[in-house]
Amino acid sequence: MIAAVILQAGATQSAPALVLRPWCVEDVTALVEVCRDPALRHWTSTSVENDADGARWVEAQQQGWAAGDRFGFAVLEAQPHSAHRQLIGNVVLSDFTTGAPSAEVGYWTAAHARGRGVAPRALEVLSNWAFDTFGADGLERLELLHQVDNLASCRVAQKSRYEFDRVLPAAPPSYPLDGHLHIRRTDA
């Protein structure tokens, strides 16, 4: 079992600092609100309609940490001069097995935070943490998958040094369209 960690991305000239931490029950209300976004529903398999769904989703993230095979982080925007941190996204290291050479990453950004560089910054922090934490155990590459028509995710992958590898065939219902596979290696 990996102890829960808190990761940070410093502020930029145009965006406040980010805090990445494991999901907790206190996130449920904000999660439900964020998941009402039609675009988020379109691009992810996250189905959170109400507080009960939100609680189950957060519990699944916590179970992943406990099992050591899925490490989901709530991405929060640190407000200057305030203890308040607004939920703006999610990043996850999944399909992880100790000793395996690869794992998968994923992310989403809340509607109100899109276009501000949240996903690339959070993904960069997650990727560095994954290689720093699990590289000695054999982790050599991280894989990022997205549907071919998700141009924003393609840009996030490129900004985060995930090189395009190949087109993957559709696998309905989870992936109704062909997808792109991007890979980042430890030496990227």
Q: Tell me the Rg in angstroms.
A: 16 Å
Name the structural class. Answer: alpha+beta
Number of strands: 8
The percentage helix is: 25-40%
So what's the overall shape? globular
Order of helices and strands: EEHHHEEEHEHEE
Tally of DSSP helical segments: 5
Mean pLDDT: 91
Low-confidence stretches: none
* SS strand fraction: 25-35%
Largest sheet entry: 8 strands, mixed
Main sheet strand line-up: 1-2-3-4-5-6-8-7
Question: Whole-Å distance between the termini?
Answer: 27 Å
Structure description:
By secondary structure, the chain is of the alpha+beta class. The protein is built from 5 helices and 8 strands. Strands 1-2-3-4-5-6-8-7 form an 8-stranded mixed beta sheet, sandwiched between helices. A hairpin with a 6-residue loop joins strand 3 and strand 4. Helix 1 crosses helix 3. It starts with 6 loop residues before the first strand and ends with a strand.
Question: Helix and strand layout, with pairings?
Answer:
Blueprint: E1 7-9, E2 18-22, H1 28-34, H2 38-43, H3 51-67, E3 71-78, E4 85-94, E5 102-109, H4 118-134, E6 141-147, H5 151-159, E7 163-168, E8 179-185
Parallel strand pairs: 5-6
Antiparallel strand pairs: 1-2, 2-3, 3-4, 4-5, 6-8, 7-8
Helix pairs in contact: 1-3
Tags for this entry?
5 helices; alpha+beta; single chain
Give a short overview.
With 188 residues, the protein is an alpha+beta fold.
